[in-house]
Amino acid sequence: MSIAAAGASVTGVGRAVARRARGSGLLLAFPATLLVAMILGLPLVLLFRYSLNHYDRYDMMREALTLDNYAAIFRDAFFRNVLMRTIVVAVISTAVALVLALPVAYFIARAPARFKSALIILVVFPLLVGNLVRAAGWMAVMGNRGFVNQLLLGFGLIEQPLEILYTPTAVVIGIIAVVLPFMTLTLQSVLEQIDPSLEEAAGSLGARPFTAFRRVVLPLAMPGVIAGSVLVFILCMNAYATPVLLGGPRFHMMAPQVYEQITGQSNWPFGAALAFILMGTTLVLTVASTQLRHGSYARRALWKA
């Protein structure tokens, strides 16, 4: 047998062994994958089936196959306004969280190693407290007799307490406080991987620090910006405790309405349809914004090239 034939035989055996090992790995992973898919997918399938039923005030739900619940949502001006309000609050909260988190994440990423762990712990610390507790804390801060009003009254800047609580502004502030750690940690992990020598090179060529950050660091950090924005936007769209506690009974968003329809009204078909409208809207807006960001980034890179 020639050397070339022996080499080909060894290569073929190696490929067969690799294929067998890959097949064994897939076979071993299949049960866990199937279990996870069932845990995640089965409730959604069941909820979607409920959304196609009719609501009956006596039987609670009557078997059917209809899209009337979805049509009723878009026919009702109240629920259209709730959906639009949810989108607006989510977009504003995501944008403000990105602007606030970017300098903090950059500072942590460029901090000395001995301080970095402590700074990350400070960012993570609010996550140890539930959203309900944090929203209650903001109620104490923004109430008529809260910290902000007492401070302003004490300095004589106002004569009457400001109406901060139970306003859209209070809801946006509360949601930003909830999602800010997620945005900061996502951006910090990406910024930390960017070599500081790139900024130094830009500075040596005459770029100011802000220009170097905008022209060098930010384009390289764009994957983290997109990932953080998507994560935070999803959290904002599905916020529940913060809108209920800080918005009050007159401020409505989609997640509290889903809860109200299912538990308060016992209208499972309509509540399930609301849940899928919320999920579908979040998915469509997330995919569309991601594609727009990727497209604009690619066009900018091509234009610079």
Short description:
With 305 residues, the chain is an all-alpha fold. It has 13 helices and two strands; from the N terminus they run H-E-E-H-H-H-H-H-H-H-H-H-H-H-H.
Characterise this structure.
The chain is mainly alpha-helical. 78% of the residues lie in helices and 2% in strands. The protein is built from 13 helices and two strands. The protein has helices at 3-51, 68-75, 77-109, 113-124, 131-142, 147-154, 168-191, 196-204, 209-220, 222-237, 241-247, 254-264, 268-304; strands spanning 54-56, 60-62. Helix 5 crosses helix 7 (168-191), helix 5 packs parallel to helix 11 and helix 12 (254-264) packs antiparallel against helix 13 (268-304). It is globular, with a radius of gyration of 26 Å.
Secondary-structure element series: HEEHHHHHHHHHHHH
Widest sheet: strand order? 1-2
Number of strands: 2
Largest pleated sheet: 2 strands, antiparallel
- Mean of pLDDT: 86
**Model regions low in confidence, pLDDT < 50 over at least 5 residues:** 4-8
The fraction of residues assigned to DSSP E strands is under 5%
CA-CA gap between termini: 54 Å
Number of helices: 13
